[in-house]
User: Fold this.
Amino acid sequence: MGFKANWSEAAQSNSLKPEGDYECLIAKAEERDYTNSKGEEKTCLNISFIIRNDVEQGYKNGHIFHTLWKRREPTENDKQVKGYGFNQVMALGKAAGLPDGKDYDSLEQFLEELIKKPVRVTIKHGEWNGEKREEVSWLNPTKFPTVKHTFKQSQSSTAQTYAQPQQSYAPAQPANQGFVDMPIDDDLPF
Assistant:
């Protein structure tokens, strides 16, 4: 079966996802260091969501990224979560269904508990430095709490699977022994 070219359907891999709600899993939640355009070292909280493939929706297995910035003037509550907006961190935990009132020893412990939790992410389009981009505008509890998402096998796990050392080796053959002359193609039975 053939097809007809339709350039109106063309999209680049970095094109924006449409605004709206996406059922996701939290793939990563970690602090990252970066250097801003002024050369200043900063730390931010990066949350990476993967769009679920067990829910009927577009962009399955795609990624959505959300960054939380430290407050310039953190409150006492903000200081409990290393200066990030306490309300933003709590909104993330609430959307992920973490237990209300639970004590955490550190922000890292809280972030670890978020991994693979389902959430509903609302995307809006915003502009930064003259460039349109996706922004997470809202986080809500999932409408599909039973998760049957199948994760793609990462290249690193594939490399581990195929890069196992060989346990036994065939004995080496002396040079020019053990080789058989192959017949010319016309003589092959197939």
Remarks:
- Helices lie at 76-80, 86-95, 107-114, 155-162.
- Residues 94 and 141 are 7 Å apart (CA to CA).
- The beta strands are 20-35, 41-51, 63-69, 118-128, 131-141.
